[in-house]
Amino acid sequence: MTRRLAPSVLNADLAQLADQVRLVEEAADWIHLDLMDGHFVPNLTFGPPVVAALRPYTDHYLDCHLMVTDPEALLPALAEAGAGGVTMHVEALDDPVRALRAAAGLGMAPGLALRPGTPLQAVLPHLDAVDLVLPMTVEPGFGGQAFDDGVLPKIAAARDAIRRAGRPVALQVDGGVNAATLPRCLDAGADVFVVGTAIFGADDPAAAAKAFRALLDREEG
Ligand code: DX5
Ligand code: ZN
Questions:
Q1: Hey, which residues are catalytic here?
Q2: Taking CA atoms, which of 14, 28, 96, 110 is between 20 and 30 Å from 6?
Q3: Which tens digits make up the pLDDT trace of 69-98?
């Protein structure tokens, strides 16, 4: 199973976004971008224009996490902006089948995210149509929160369900992932690791990203 590191720039210096991405580029597989609308979550970050602005500065896959009330409405602009994947919250979708199909039809990898309190059952009917499942390990909205251990059994159950589905669905973790919690996520079966403040809150983000890369490569053996 390929293990991927997806640094989240949410708590990076957003005034220097391209430079911040460059710092972690060598160690990263994906760049994780948190789009928030101030409605689905209390925080408000950025939208498709910032994704488009960043696009020329990196070749990495842009992994967009949509914490917005109407994710479907953003899909055409995100495709135009060069997003690689779009992970939508299942709680925000009236019709997940239609939304996933729309994302795929626009050439983006569709994903479904769940708040910590949302049961895994909400995404199980859609495993045939997603490329990624994200059981959040904090309440979405802010970086720097403590990892919620209570989500680990849900991650393990998601891994089992993905195995049974027999499709290459990525299992992402996001929220409070650091050097102490990452191995627990790995044990539970996660394979894509979003890391925000443990990288960009470090004195040397490039070195911190490399340390996570080494941790993933070491655990892989
Ligand atoms: C929170 C975002 C995360 C955030 C993670 O809602 O989805 O991607 O950047 O930050 P840390 O790693 O600090 O929990
Ligand atoms: Zn995120």
A1: 34, 174
A2: 96
A3: 999 999 999 999 999 999 999 999 999 999
| DSSP, residue by residue, the chain | ---EEEEB-TTS-GGGHHHHHHHHTTT-SEEEEEEEBSSSSS-B---HHHHHHHGGG--SEEEEEEESS-HHHHHHHHHHHT-SEEEEEGGG-S-HHHHHHHHHHTT-EEEEEE-TTS-GGGTGGGTTT-SEEEE-SS-TT-SSPPP-GGGHHHHHHHHHHHHHHTS--EEEEESS--TTTHHHHHHHT--EEEESHHHHTSS-HHHHHHHHHHHHHHHH-
The pLDDT assigned to 1 comes to 76
- The tens digit of pLDDT for each residue in 27-78 reads 999 999 999 999 999 999 999 999 999 999 999 999 999 999 999 999 999 9
**Among 89, 134, 145, which residue has the most ligand 1 atoms within 8 Å of its CB, making it the best to mutate?**
145
